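Recap quiz, item 2
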Amino acid sequence: MARAATTSDAFNAVAEPWRREILDLLARGERPVGDLVRVLGLAQPQVSKHLRVLREVDLVRARDNGRQRVYRLNPAPLKGIHDWVAGYERLWNERFDLMDEVLDELMLDESTEGENGNDVDD
Amino acid sequence: MARAATTSDAFNAVAEPWRREILDLLARGERPVGDLVRVLGLAQPQVSKHLRVLREVDLVRARDNGRQRVYRLNPAPLKGIHDWVAGYERLWNERFDLMDEVLDELMLDESTEGENGNDVDD
DNA sequence: TTGACGCATTCCGTTATCGGCATACGATTG
DNA sequence: CAATCGTATGCCGATAACGGAATGCGTCAA
């Protein structure tokens, strides 16, 4: 309904592959920026920018340690994403996707056999 | 490491609130485009465009029924998202986030008590 | 205090994204 | 056949996102 403030949303923050990778790294323990730069092989400003986005949605938090800033993961906002997808878990677990495949093939068969229209009603 | 083909990725497709809403609707059953237009209150072209993105990542599939195109959900690509977030589930369940909060406050307290710099060592 | 270090921020150019509008196109109806 | 319905696509303008390079700023060492 409402426009989404693009960047202030965990879904959006996580849509960036580098940001997911940063989260994956921080999941194994807190790290200063320089560490991330080295591991990821990105330029330092880009890493800082990604961290900024992650900070804005509260997916990471920072602590100053001398002249370095140590980031750590805050998994809480991921719960929202998890809850959303979890609602679909049932669907693929119960092989409804397989049923879809079968339906697809059935319809192909039928249309070559007898041109049978299917009506849908909701 | 590699650049992400922005739109050909389930994470990205799902980052759009309208697209999530479309998926939520289709989770309750297949629907023709016109239905979605009415329910969502969006202009028809926008709905078609969002459906196109969802189709490109195989989150929805279409079936022609006369002059209308009936869309249905294909939950399979969501599994990738689910698997990724599920890896973090342990983290918020075990109240590690709560521990973070406590740590934050401890550091605040210390710095107001005696202007004590906190040293951290890794 | 000066200089180096660690990180954040800014500016720039490019590309992607999104909504709005018009239009094209196949299927149906008359 | 022409007119209409249901959808998809193309074009436009505005805005956001991203990488790169330069720079700002606080902290530490000499």
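Chain B touches chain A through 48 residues (CB under 8 Å).
Residues 84-122 of chain B form one domain.
End of item.
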